[in-house]
Amino acid sequence: MSDFAPATEIASARAALARLQANMRLTIRGKDDVIDRTLVCLLAGGHLLIEDLPGVGKTTLAYSLARSMDCAFSRIQFTSDLLPTDVTGVSIYDETVKEFVFKQGPVFANVVLADEINRATPKTQSALLEVMDRARVTVDGAAHAVGSPFMVVATQNPVDYEGTFPLPESQMDRFLMRIAMGYPLPGDELEILRAPRLGYDAIALNAVVTRTELLQLQALAGRGFVEDTVLDYILKIVTATRTEAEFKAGASVRGGLSLRIAAQARALLLGRDFVIPEDVQEMVAPVLAHRLSLARQTSDALEERRTVVAALRRIVAAIAVPE
Hints:
Layout: H1 7-25, H2 32-43, E1 48-51, H3 58-67, E2 69-70, E3 73-77, H4 84-88, E4 89-94, E5 99-104, E6 111-115, H5 122-125, H6 129-134, E7 136-139, E8 142-145, E9 151-156, H7 169-172, E10 177-179, H8 186-194, E11 209-210, H9 211-222, H10 228-241, H11 253-269, H12 277-288, H13 301-318
Parallel strand pairs: 1-9, 1-10, 2-11, 3-6, 6-9
Antiparallel strand pairs: 4-5, 7-8
Helix pairs in contact: 1-2, 2-11, 9-11, 10-11, 11-12, 12-13
């Protein structure tokens, strides 16, 4: 692991992140924990899946994040008739040059909102696999980079809703984190009711972080120091999921790496350049839960999520915390 970062660098990063937090709070009321987890995912350079009931602010959260940064943004409305080429792009024959020219799809942006991703067929969902893993699209044997930074923020309704297709396990594994919005507290919801009714596409937020600053923040998060005892703590948690009777299969190696990266990002969000066990504990559920499925069959997606999270909490509680 790297040396500790200078205090001035950490202070500058914390100031930039505080601007992002304050900006997003202008439209996302009473959900500081949701905003913080979204920013952790951004710092870690990962992709975010927001799963919850319709109308609780999933798309508004994604828009608020995108509008707070001076980066290219695009939105893809996923529907059952959406084709893979509608996402990635397609080669079109150009009469002027007498050859095929690649026309970029909406995935070519820094922040891509994949709205209601599970309303598209598995074939179209799979069009995101390569770009989420390698930040590039391959069409007709030619690779096209989508740029840096690159983040997919996907929203989906619970999988047992009519007209939805469950995301395949390989697709779920590409998301660093899965979070839920939840209903706001009564006081916060009253403020929402008092505000003028505006669509999420009319959100007027100024960008408070540049693309260059964002890349520097992500690089700094990746340099966060992780002591060997904390790495061993992460390994014990991941290994325990592989022997847990509740789960059909345990977390993958990618899951363990994702847990470390998310813990580093959380540390930076809180103004530290080193990871403590609490960072790991707070990231276990959002990073690992969507990568695990129950050994027993259940038709209730919400019940399965609660059972998986409860099992993860038991695992964490049973493992000694390093000093």
